[in-house]
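Study this:
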Amino acid sequence: VDFVGNKKLSTSQIKDRLKEAKVTVRAGAPLSLRDVARARSTIADYYVEQGFRSASVDYRIDDISKTEKKVVFLIDEGDKVKIESISFTGNTAVSAQALRNAMHKTKVATFWRILSDDTVYNQASYEADVESMKGLYQSKGYKDVVVKDPILDVYITNPTAKPTKIKRRVRITVPIVQGEVFYTNTITIARIEQNGQVADPPEVSVYPGGLLLKQFPELPPGSILNRDHIVEGLSAIEAMYKSRGYIYWFADP
């Protein structure tokens, strides 16, 4: 098995990805065209995830002997696609700038970020930023916010250039479904069994329930349901329990 044309991603990186995806094309094994096709698809997806959206992957099978073949994966890496702009639809409660600020790994290509890899579209990085955007909305009471798959508009900035000199950019549009704002009603503390069912009686015993409720001072009845305040309260309770040796403390709000 051989790989040709890969420079930005090493052969060991590609093999590790194939191993991670449980796609087996190895010397000494029976030749399976289905496995070869799966490997080609896995390599192509890997390049897209790493920002090489114009990359192409093909393969050929060379004869070595009557019973042996050589599988060669032919890789044209193309170029990394820089981010031209990031816009949003459906975001009436949070500004576009606030959402862009929440995206720590996906950034618009500007002259002061000329050396940053964050300005290259990377699917894995974007998915991490989706959680950051959702967290921003959930801190404002939008518990059920949905950040949909991005709409990618890839274009060539220098169409008259030679094929090897072509540069691509991408405009990203992020559709958001905000949902409704939720408010805090009451907070209760209940003890659960290891099977997840509420215990009988449900009262906690290590600390008084009233003391645990005091760890949520920013969530009085009628306040906007702020996910950050829930996390802060749970972190304080976790520290209380672990200080008494309850290292397997767990809460599921």
